[in-house]
Specification:
Immunoglobulin-like, five-stranded mixed beta sheet, 19 strands, globular, binds copper (II) ion
Length: about 375
C-alpha cells in the first residue's frame, strides 16, 4: 500500500469509528449518524411523585399516572430513536443532557454539509425517519405519497422490522438560518410510516443546522455555550402503535370511555410529566440556546414559560413563547438568576395535566 492508500485507509477507519466527520464534496463534511428505533417501556413519571412541587400525587394527578387493573398508569410501551457510535449498533451514544428524555439523538450539521443516517428498525412495526428542512430526494424522504415514483423510492417510508436503510440529506443554505434567525435553527425529524401513531409512540428527535462558518467541529453553533432541547406534546397513548398490546396487558379489560382515554393523554415535556424531567443545569452568565418543539393535535398549543429568567426570541424579550403542532423556535437565555426554577406550559389545562418541569441555574464560578 502506498502512502496515499495508507492515509485514506486510516482516514476511513477513523471516520468509521465516528471520531471525525468524513470530508464531503465541496467544503462541507459528511455527518454520519447511526440511529435505531427501539421499543421501550417508557415511564412518564419515574420519580413517582410531583417533582415540580415536591409532593405526592393528588387524586386529580393520579388520573394520569396511577396504574390499576383497568388503568395503564405512567409506564407505556413506546418506541424511541437511539443513537449509536458504530455501524454495528453495539455502543449507544452517551447522552449529553438527560433532560432530552424520549427524544432521539441530536443531529448536528452546518450549512454545506451532507447528512447520512444509517437507520435500523428494531421494533415490530414498520417505521422511518422523515426530516424537516433539509434537502432530500424521494428515496430519503422517509414518507410515502402519491407522487408517481416507483418502489425503489418507497423503501425509505416503511423500513421493515429488523431492516436497515440509509438516508442521505443535503444541507444547502435554505436548510439553515434565514436572515432573521440566530446562528442555528432546529428542525424535527420523526417517523412517518404511520405518522400519527409513530409520533405519539415517541419516534421524534431534534436536528440543529448551524450557519456556514459558525459551527464547532461537531456542528453546534460556536457562539452558544449550551444547547437545551424541549419538546412539548400531549402524547396520546390511545393512538399509540402499541395501544392494543397495552390493553391486553391490563388485569381487566377497561371500559373504553372518556375517562379511560383521558388517563392516556400524557401532557409531557420531553416525555415527562409533573416535573419528572431531569433538570437542565445552566450556568449563570452563559449563553444558553433553547430549542423549542411541538407536535400533535388541536390541543397542542403550548406556551412554555420560564420562571426567574428571560429569553430573547427574534429580538423580542419574553418569558413565554408560543408553540403549535410541528412548529419549532430558537430562543436564547443569559441566565442571571441562580436557583431551581419552574418551567411549564402556561395553558391552564396543561398545567393541571402535568406539563410541568424545572431547570436549574448554577451560580457562575
Ligand atoms: Cu401546553
Amino acid at each position: 500500500m502506498n502512502h496515499q492508500g495508507l492515509l485514506s485507509s486510516l482516514t476511513a477507519l477513523v471516520v468509521a469509528c465516528g471520531l471525525v466527520p468524513a470530508a464531503a464534496e465541496a467544503d462541507g463534511v459528511l455527518r454520519q449518524y447511526y440511529i435505531s428505533a427501539e421499543e421501550v417501556d417508557w415511564d412518564f413519571a419515574p420519580m413517582g411523585r410531583d417533582e415540580m412541587m415536591g409532593m405526592e400525587f393528588s387524586d386529580d394527578q393520579n388520573v394520569f399516572v396511577e396504574a390499576s387493573d383497568t388503568r395503564i398508569g405512567s409506564v407505556y410501551r413506546m418506541a424511541q430513536y437511539i443513537g449509536y457510535e458504530d455501524a454495528e449498533f453495539t455502543v449507544p451514544l452517551t447522552l449529553a443532557d438527560p433532560s432530552t428524555g424520549i427524544l432521539g439523538p441530536v443531529i448536528h450539521a452546518e450549512v454545506g454539509d451532507q447528512i447520512e443516517i444509517v437507520f435500523r428498525n428494531n421494533t415490530r412495526v414498520p417505521t422511518s425517519i422523515h426530516p424537516h428542512g433539509v434537502f432530500y430526494d424521494k428515496a430519503s424522504e422517509g414518507a410515502m405519497t402519491n407522487d408517481g415514483t416507483g418502489m425503489e423510492d418507497m423503501m425509505d417510508a416503511h423500513v421493515q422490522p429488523g431492516a436497515t436503510y440509509t438516508y442521505h440529506w443535503d444541507v444547502p443554505e435554505r436548510a439553515g438560518p434565514g436572515p432573521n434567525d440566530e446562528s442555528s435553527v432546529v428542525w424535527l425529524y420523526h417517523s412517518h410510516a404511520d405518522e400519527i401513531a409513530d409520533t405519539n409512540s415517541g419516534l421524534v428527535g431534534p436536528m440543529v443546522i448551524t450557519a456556514a462558518g459558525k459551527a464547532n467541529p461537531d456542528g453546534s453553533p460556536m457562539d452558544v455555550d449550551q444547547e437545551v432541547f424541549s419538546y412539548f406534546s400531549v402524547m396520546n397513548q390511545n393512538e399509540s402503535l402499541f395501544f392494543d398490546q397495552m390493553l391486553t396487558s391490563l388485569a381487566k379489560m377497561p371500559d373504553l370511555n372518556d375517562e379511560f382515554e383521558e388517563s392516556n393523554l400524557m401532557h409531557a415535556i420531553n416525555g415527562y410529566v409533573f416535573g419528572n424531567m431531569p433538570m437542565p443545569v445552566l450556568t449563570e452568565g452563559a449563553k444558553v440556546r433553547w430549542y423549542m418543539m411541538s407536535l400533535g393535535t388541536e390541543v397542542d398549543l403550548h406556551t412554555p414559560h420560564w420562571h426567574g429568567n428571560t429569553v430573547l426570541h427574534e429580538g423580542h424579550r419574553k418569558d413565554v413563547v408560543e408553540l403549535l403542532p410541528a412548529t419549532t423556535l430558537v430562543v436564547d437565555m443569559w441566565p442571571d438568576n441562580p436557583g431551581i426554577w419552574m418551567y411549564h406550559c402556561h395553558v391552564n389545562d396543561h398545567i393541571a395535566a402535568g406539563m410541568t418541569g424545572r431547570f436549574e441555574v448554577a451560580p457562575a464560578g
